[in-house]
Amino acid sequence: MLVNRFSTCIRRCLLCAIALASVSVAHAQTETFTAVASVKGAKIGAGIANMTLTVNRLATDAERDALLAAVKKGGTAAARALLRGKADAGTLQLGSRPATIKYAYARSVGGGRLLTLITADPIVLLGAGLPDAKPAAGYDLGLVLLEVAASGPGKGELVPAAKVKADAQGAIVTEDYSGETVQLTQILKK
Question: How far apart are CA 21 and CA 127, in angstroms?
């Protein structure tokens, strides 16, 4: 009887420890970044906006491999279908425009990290209202690359509406709707 109570107590303590460890790991993964987004183009003009990104969950290597396989197999449509079936990985706020991050992957580079963030919908179609704007069909993903420095501000790029595909060598190629790169500066981890 005493052994059973002791065994039950140990099991409960282990379950509590596991639960607390998983809560702290999930909490430790949540990261918030701020940045300044700016773009300047002959057709679309110039613009600047504050950006806030919150990453709640990072993708595993297996999830990254599955996304790459989807892109190689079916381009943007396959990637979007895969991402829409995934749990949200975070949020993005560009000025007053919100977006849901469906994929967040981080890897170490130099003294910092490179984060790749993807939305399953375009964030904004820059230049869509212009008279000679091209059709928006197929520009169904938003892409963000953040170079987070070990110390000081980082930099990055935003492709608010993109198509993706694999080239003959299997490399991922992106096509931006507007053709203008949105630069991200002053990237800081909060």
Answer: 47
The model's confidence at residue 13, banded by pLDDT at 50, 70 and 90, is: very low
Whether residue 150 lies inside any domain: the answer is yes
146 closest CA partner among 175, 113, 111, 168: 113
* Count of domains forming the chain: 1
Q: Alpha-carbon distance 182 to 83, whole Å?
A: 23
Q: Residue 166 pLDDT more than 90?
A: no
* 38, containing H or E segment: strand 31-41
Q: How far is CA 10 from CA 18, 19, 21, in A?
A: 12, 14, 16
Per-residue pLDDT, 10: 40
Q: pLDDT category, 137, cuts 50, 70, 90? A: confident
pLDDT in tens, 87-127: 999 999 999 999 999 999 999 998 899 999 999 999 988 87
In sequence order, what are the residues at sequence separation of 6 or more whose Cβ sits closer than 8 angstroms to the Cβ of residue 126? 39, 41, 44, 160, 161, 177, 178, 180, 182
- Is residue 103 in some structural domain? yes
